[in-house]
Amino acid sequence: METTRMHLSSPRARRLAAGATAVALGATIAAAAALGAAPANAASADVTDASLSWSLSNEANAGAYFGGCNFLSAGVAGSSGASAPWTATNPSPGYAASAGNVSIAYPKAAGGTSTPTFATKCQTGDGTTVRPGTTTAGVLTLAAGTGTVDAAAGTADIAWDGGFTVAFYGGLTYWSAEDPELHVAADGTGELTATVSGYAASRDGGSWAPLTPRTVHLATLTDVDVDVTSSGITVSPDWQGVEPASATSLNKTNADWGSWPADFVDFQNETGQSSYWYTSGANDAAAKKPQPISIAYTAAEAPTPEPTEPTEPGTPEPTTEPSEPGTPEPTTEPSEPGTPEPTTEPSEPGTPEPTTGPTTEPTTPAPSISTGGATTFTVGDSVPLRAEGLPAATEYSIVLHSDPVVLGTVTTDADGAFATSVVIPTGTPAGAHTIAVESSDGTAVVSLAITVTADGTVVVDPIDTTTAVTTGAAVNTGGTVSGTSALPWIGLSAFGVVALGSVAFIAYRRRVTQQD
């Protein structure tokens, strides 16, 4: 599926020359502006550094009954020639923790990540070998995404170059996705698509055939919040209640029953993995449902042009100095000794030339931290975090309280923002906790209150826009704040000057040694 991405221009001011013709043109444009011709793309911004981080599902990173584990690999894997677990040399290309813009990382329980190898791909970031029912929580990241976001319209179009492979049962079955694209519509609905390929295989190794590549939905999305000021999007893909026709063993008795998108499940019917992408058992939803997708970017706004001084209506622009009626035209020298000749410039040296209005200095957003649209997680899941309003190029620690546990470290970008993910340790006791972003001296500059329930659910406390931000040493427990301020646009219309914004695995249900 070929999709055209919009690249909308940022607001831009124009200045028209003085004179009778320009006056008439300025009046015409001003009249159009008065009728509501405001630029529709005032909040549109180009994106060149978008990163997409995703674990897909816990099942895609889980221990397996055969082949060691299910795992993610960077790059599009070649053909292994048969349905068999991968080796260090087959397929080729084969296992990789990085390839081009794509990388794989495993989170550590105490914070930070480790880079897996072929030998350690079935171990957690802390070196523990996974078994069925446990997961490495591997995180896939695609970098250098490009496109546009428009906060005013609520839309986004971002594409990535690169691919990844998802292998089940040590590589007995696998498929790949390439060049994902994110599209978000003005109503908050969205889709993440990619070109998928893979191999049809049987568990006894009797068949092995390439599948026809096609574009499918990796995720469909609802209630996506596109906000340039927040520098990112975090959203949980649709799952509950999704019912593809080809999900023949869909189990609706599961309290959280659901499925991945229909065309994705259709494709997995050919790989043999289909039942691993929807509820087929009584309590397997937590393993199979999609994990939250986190997308971080820097929105590059075009600089606002500096306003210029308009001439007064009906007054011709002076050349040298105005002359009094009936008197000889003065020279550039003052008429009276020691008295400076009045000019259009300020009389005091060093005073800047007056403009049409005060120049609005760009405001720095208040420190804030957010998990995006997702507010419920499970202990051991990757929890996306993004923050803004902090000092640029500064390193911080992310610490879980009350008993301090360092979850990781981050460094803010040139705009004082960061986007990352952390794992709430599995041993975290039930009760109220705080995730704090702390400076080198241990001061919490901003924090997020969470509650861990007895069943291991992590709940982000409700948003409190008045008490959520902590800028001192005390740790906040009030919630989160996410910036929503509109981006400015400039429209100046005067006789002679106009400035307007431009509109513009087979993951079988039949396991080798045990049924799922």
Question: Care to describe what's here?
Answer:
- Helices cover 6% and strands 30% of the residues.
- By secondary structure, the protein is mainly β.
- The protein has helices spanning 20-34, 262-271, 285-288, and strands at residues 44-54, 71-74, 98-99, 102-107, 113-114, 139-150, 155-159, 163-168, 173-184, 190-201, 208-210, 214-221, 232-235, 293-296, 299-300, 368-370, 376-378, 382-388, 395-401, 405-411, 418-423, 431-438, 444-452, 457-460, 492-494, 497-499.
- The protein has three helices and 26 strands.
- The chain is globular.
- The relative contact order is 0.17.
Helix-strand layout with pairing:
Blueprint: H1 20-34, E1 44-54, E2 71-74, E3 98-99, E4 102-107, E5 113-114, E6 139-150, E7 155-159, E8 163-168, E9 173-184, E10 190-201, E11 208-210, E12 214-221, E13 232-235, H2 262-271, H3 285-288, E14 293-296, E15 299-300, E16 368-370, E17 376-378, E18 382-388, E19 395-401, E20 405-411, E21 418-423, E22 431-438, E23 444-452, E24 457-460, E25 492-494, E26 497-499
Antiparallel strand pairs: 1-6, 1-14, 1-15, 2-8, 3-4, 4-5, 4-6, 6-7, 7-9, 8-9, 9-10, 10-11, 10-12, 13-14, 16-18, 17-24, 18-21, 19-20, 19-22, 22-23, 23-24, 25-26
